[in-house]
Amino acid sequence: MSMLFPLYFLGMLAFGLPWLLHRFSHFEPPVLTFPSKKFLKPSKPPVSNKKKIRYRFLFALRALLLAALCFLFAQPFLNQTTEQALGDTTQIIVVDNSFSMRAGDRWQQAINKAGELINELPQDANAQLFSTNNVLTPLSALTNNHSALSTALNDLTPGFHGVDFGELMTRLNNLANESEIASYAQLVSDVQVSARPVQTNELFATNLTGFRIEPVTDDNVKNVWFTAEARSDDNLFARVNVKLSVANSAGENVSESVTVQVLLEDELVASKTANVGSDASVTLNFDKLDLSTTRNPVFEVRLQQDDALMEDNSQQVPVKGLQPIEVYYVNENNSASPQSEVFIKTALESDRLAELIDAPDANTQIPTQARHAIVRTRLDRNGDLPQWINSAAAQGVNILVIAQRDPSLESRVARQAKHLAQIDLAHPVALSGMNLFKLRFYEAFEFNANKTDTVLIALEDGTPLLIERFNDGGGKVMLLNDPLDGFYSDMPQHPEFVALMQKLITYFEANNALISSTVVGKSFKLPANVQLLNPAGKAMLKLDETANESLVQIDEPGLYSVVSAQSESALQAFTDPRESDVLTMSAESIAAWERRHNDREKADSLQTTALASSNENSTDNDQAKKWLWQWLLPLLALMLFVEPLFANRLLNVSRENA
Amino acid sequence: MNAIATSRFLKPDVLARLGTLELVARTVVDGVLVGLHRSPDFGFSQEFAEYRAYNDGDDLRHVDWNVYARADRMVVKRYKGETNSAVTLVLDVSASMNFGSPVKKIDQARFLTASLAYLARKQRDALGLVLFDEKIHEFIAPNARPDSLTKILSALESVNASETGNGTDMFAALSNLRLNMDKRGLLILVSDFYDDIDTIVSAIQPLVHAGQDTVLFHLVDNEELSPQQNKIVALRDIETNEEVIVSPEYLNGEYKHSFDEHRKQLSKKCSQMGADYIELNTADSLDNAIGSYLQLRERRG
Fold first, then answer.
1. Taking CA A147 as the corner, what is the angle to CA A143 and CA A151, rounded to the nearest 5 degrees?
2. Could you tell me which residues of chain A have a Cβ less than 8 Å from any Cβ in chain B?
């Protein structure tokens, strides 16, 4: 009999509790009537501390109960020889082709070792070859034609993706679960420490018959990697931050002198050297990088020295923060006052958040290339928008409508200054950080919100000030019920107005924001009507894929472009930094990982029996284990029932008032 | 055969099923050979006892004038008094009597008292009854009227020792009794005598000195004589509700010795006082007790 978790037998220490209880127990003597106590004298107190165990049967029952509980947790099983155990075992060979396998000669070693495993397979044994990075990819069908496996292996190349051993084991477990016969897996990998899951238990695939790791060892190779970011606040100069790290495969402390070069349009613009240790990262800052000479502000950051992974020594880094958000300003029939335009322009262009662009022709309304627009137009009391605004919103333009009332239709319902009474703090516009209650509104216009409108801000008499109109599938539409000229309210003169306008535009921009950086192999969403161009400028999405929102994954690092009808933005794809960390697991860790799957006493014979002879596949797979908990569980339940039965009788326990 | 059958019917647990005390008394007394006890006093019945020389002051009606005519001597005729003795039955009804098996001591005592009353009534004795615990609960003065037996049996029927009842104060109870007894006679005291020997003696001795011919029936139960406990128990005093935790070793040793000593002392003191002491177990049949009593009376003349 073997135990899966023998440490639970430490729970047997709990025997001490009933042992003590049965030696030192309080005894309540039965009460009998007697004619007189005249001739009676009290004997010794009946609290006994006899050395002998009392109620031995009950003690034995309780000890058995604890033992059964410990056994249950220890999960005992018997290895039995079944037909299934003796039958064929599916051999699964997994080759790690993650990015780190490119380090040194790891990949060549991996190919060689995988080839050896294929050659060592028992004749006629069913086997399947897989590669693993962020997904487990079958390279061949389940076959006993081992030459097909070799062919598939020769076609395999290392990728740029990362690997997570927790996900790998989960997938192997599912694979073994789907298989009707036992599965034995062998992994050829550099077993990086950084690919280990946070939860160690995720490394345990319970459905596998056995698991073995063929580690790809290399000499003490080291690798330097970095992450870089470039930002500009004024379009004239940029700042590049480079965070450097170094590791070696043996886990030793190393210190490396690293020279980082920053290039712009293939010309070296900055270079710095720093000593980087494996114990801490080093950040280099490159300031005042002149952008005036280029029209394509993308820096190339590269390491001058060679190391184990050359592919992560260079990155294309686009400059962020260059372009303010373009917001088109449409003043229909020049109905708005000049003051209000000044207020709006001042608010939006603070901190260069946005740039207010006058529409070429106010009567042609919103330009087709616009992504965001502010429209000044007259509205009726129901707030119905003109058709041209609805059309633009349906095209995906985010529109802020600032109400301009026809004076003949205005109904001045109040001359007394009013305050705000209702603010929807839960809305994504994030109005919670603003103090809007001090604003005063001298004249508020009657305005009836539609049933589908969301009122974000309302005055104390219920008149809505800011609403969001429901617009299914298109851009966002918001209505501001104030002409912003400084006469109807003091809102434009308060700092909160700047914050409010910026929040609204930021909210618009968030709707259309495109991803700017990603890790190779990681899926991300692209909105509809957007095309992804690879570094060579070739479209990566088919026409039908661009029609709807799509989930995209990039397989190689580089600078990609995301192109939409309104704009084009750079997408930086870089390799997973965890893959650049070439530190490998120790032999002890690997052995512990394997041991979770294999019976320790049979570890040696497991390989030989599984690999050498198909006739002797007597492994300790799940099917070959007879789990004893199936018997222990009802026994435990029975004892749990019997124990109080005897305890109540022996110890004379009775219910209150019974 | 007849004796065996009679003995069977006199077992206390069988008597307990007979119903009325009168029937119990009839069964007991009729089952026992009726022995007439003799009065220690000379009375006025027809059975001649002896002649005695006339002394001054003797009643001239008792002078045998025939002897005087023949012998010219004045003698007085004397007779054996068979009946008309005053019998006072004193029954302890304290809570401690509410214990025993197969019948409780109080039941055994009621059977005994009823039987003795029936027996006395058959001899036309005057019958009286006293029920007491810490004080006298009921006192029926000795009376020779025909309905005295009925009254006593009725009083005995109503006896019910309370489980949480009172204790025993024999001295106080019998002291009061002595004040009410102005006639010499037979006093039968039935109790379990859970009191100090000195107290019991001080309570009984004045009665004996006052001319009461006293018989003590000591009711005991086998569980008192030899407790059958094999583990530690808490014994609750019926009278006080106090609990005493005792071990079986103590019950079989020290307690047993103390209780035996109490019985011996009581018997000894009774002998010294001139009172009779008869022990009656709740498991014993009543014919033995009544037989012993009659033999005792016979012996004492």
1. 105
2. 27, 29-46
* Least confident segment among A266-280, A353-367, A429-443: A353-367
Contact B232 A42 (CB under 8 A): no
Q: Compute CA distances B205 → A134, B89, B137, B189, B277, whole Å.
A: 113, 17, 22, 13, 14
The complex scores an ipTM of 0.77
Rounded Cα distance, A308 and A414, in Å: 76
Taking residue B256's Cβ as centre, other Cβ atoms within 10 Å add up to 16
Q: Which residues pair with A479 in a beta bridge?
A: A401, A467
Nearest to A498 by CA among A592, A434, A569, A454: A434
Same domain, A336 and A457: yes
- Residue B49 has which token pair? 């006892």
Residues A337, A394, single domain; the answer is yes
| Contacts with B224 from chain A: Cβ below 8 Å | 35
For position A484, which CATH number holds? 3.40.50.880
A45–B245 CB contact, under 8 Å: yes
What range defines the domain where residue A530 resides?
A: 517-574
Domain end position, chosen among A322, A344, A376: A322
Reduced 3-state DSSP string for A200-240: HHHHCCCCCCEEEEEECCCCCCEEEEEEEEEECCCCCEEEE
Q: What is the DSSP string of B11-77?
A: SHHHHTTS-SHHHHHHHHHHHS--PPP--SSEEEEEEEEEEEE--TT--GGGB-HHHHHHHS--EEE
Please indicate whether residue A159 or residue A420 has the higher confidence score (pLDDT): A159
CA distance, residue A650 to nearest chain B CA (Å): 14
B7 and B147 both lie in a single domain: yes
- Work out how many domains chain B is built from and give that number: 2
Both tokens assigned to A230: 């470039």
Query: Based on the domain organization, do B260 and B115 belong to the same domain?
Result: yes
Question: Count of domains in chain A?
Answer: 5
The pTM is what?
0.46
Q: Quick one: what percent of chain A has pLDDT higher than 70?
A: 87
Same domain, A204 and A227: no
Residues A189 and A283 in one domain: no
Domain co-membership, B46 together with B186:
no
